[in-house]
């Protein structure tokens, strides 16, 4: 099974997010368990580091990679970029809110009240 580069990057990020101490390429490759080559995992980790999504610390002959952002922080950054890049951001927000479950709408209201000046 082949994955797009973006899908593999997401899979690797999900794995690294599970380890508070970070992970080596070998540990990530083991957790992928789909036959992805070690060198491919190293390349993906290096790309994610280059994008600023992972930090790395030398550990023996390898690096240990840790996320620079939590999953929630990265999702919020992406949502913000998508919203700010839209030609009609209010319409985007409207469509987003329309897809929320009632409990999510209530949580959003609570968050908005809490962040109001």
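^ Assign residues to that structure.
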């Amino acid at each position: 099974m082949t994955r797009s580069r973006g899908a593999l990057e997401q899979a690797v990020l999900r794995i690294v997010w599970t380890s508070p101490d970070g992970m080596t390429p070998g540990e990530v490759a083991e957790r992928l368990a789909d036959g992805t080559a070690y060198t491919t995992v190293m390349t993906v980790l290096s790309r994610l580091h280059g994008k600023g999504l992972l930090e790395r610390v030398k550990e023996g002959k390898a690096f240990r990679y840790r996320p620079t952002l939590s999953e929630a922080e990265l999702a919020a950054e992406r949502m913000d970029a998508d919203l700010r890049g839209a030609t009609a951001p209010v319409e985007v927000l409207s469509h987003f809110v329309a897809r929320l479950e009632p409990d999510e709408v209530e949580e959003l209201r609570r968050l908005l009240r809490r962040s109001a000046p």
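The longest strand covers residues 54-59.
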